[in-house]
Amino acid sequence: MFGYDWPRLHAALNDLPTALLVTAVLFQLLALATRREAFRVVSFWTLIIGALGGAAAVLSGLQAEEHIAHGDAVHRVMETHEKLAFVTLGIFAVLALWRLLRERRMGTGERALALAAMLAGAGVLIATASYGGRLVFDHAAGIPTDVLTAETRSRSEGHHHGAGEEHDEDGHSHEGTPAPTAATDSAEPAGHVDPPGTPPHSHEPKPADDHPHSPGTPAHEH
Q1: pLDDT tens per residue, the chain (222 residues)?
Q2: 174 φ, ψ to 5°?
Q3: How far is 219 from 213, CA to CA, in rounded Å?
Q4: Closest by alpha carbon to 78, among 91, 65, 59?
Q5: How far is it, in rounded angstroms, from Cα 219 to Cα 44?
Q6: DSSP β-bridge partners for residue 214
Q7: How many CB atoms lie within 10 A of CB 51?
Q8: Cβ of 80: how many Cβ atoms within 10 Å?
Q9: Which of 23, 42, 64, 105 could disulfide-link to 10, CB 3.0 to 4.6 Å?
Q10: Is the Cβ–Cβ distance between 46 and 20 less than 8 Å?
Q11: CA dist 216 to 30, 85, 212, Å?
């Protein structure tokens, strides 16, 4: 469906309703603390949309359960996750319907009761998300067996970044070319060694002298 299999679709549909429902609770608390009508309106609409998104997440999760290869350990965690998801959806669905029918006529006591139900729903929502995380990170649920086997083999082989090795954006490694050293650039020709104590001198050739000069001969121009 849309390029997703059911487990991936379920994972994609989880985040938005979770964020919306938690936001609905937070804005309801702000509305109670500040008495601002705008916060109450935000809480109302995020609750309605979050409940609808939660229904989509639960339905996709039921389909994903039928397409995930799993053993007994995964099944136990999956069953708990599923039960908590139903409880979460039930609480917020009732709250959404309640506020949809009574939002403009609620008294102080009724709003306090609705807020208590929202806080309880948020607690169950967090537990549901925790068990969903355990399915993925503790049991690798949703990852095909052949992919998991290949990944396990790859991890057992290890991956090390060697000295001078560079990596591009795709993760491919390239051996870096070592920079030339000063010793290499300034090395003298092989076979020439200066005795200890020899003053620095230039290796440029000196012009040949045409004839020798006797001791004491004054300098003259050529």
Answers
A1: 455 688 888 888 999 999 999 999 999 999 999 999 999 999 999 999 999 999 999 999 998 888 887 778 888 998 999 999 999 999 999 999 999 999 989 998 999 999 999 999 999 999 999 999 888 888 777 777 778 788 888 888 876 666 555 555 555 555 555 555 544 444 445 555 666 666 665 555 555 555 555 566 566 555
A2: -135, 130
A3: 9
A4: 65
A5: 107
A6: none
A7: 25
A8: 16
A9: 64
A10: yes
A11: 107, 112, 12
Rounded-to-integer distance, Cα 143 and Cα 151, Å: 10
What DSSP character marks residue 188?
A: P
CB 86 within 8 A of CB 59: no
Dist. CA 38–CA 132, nearest whole Å: 33
Residue identified by tokens 């709250």 is 95
Q: What is the DSSP letter of 173?
A: E
- Could you tell me which residues come within 8 angstroms of residue 182 by beta carbon, excluding any fewer than 6 positions away? none
Give the DSSP letter string of 109-169: HHHHHHHHHHHHHHHHHHHHHHHHHHHHHTT-TTS-HHHHHHHHHHHHH-----TTEEE-T
CA distance 90 to 84: 10
Among residues 11, 142, 137, which one has the least CA distance to residue 69?
Answer: 142
Query: In a 10 Å sphere around its CB, with 0-12 CB exposed, 13-18 middle and 19+ buried, how is residue 56 labelled?
Result: middle
In 3D space, the residue among 127, 134, 121 whose CA is nearest the CA of residue 78 turns out to be: 134
10 sits in which H/E element: helix 6-34
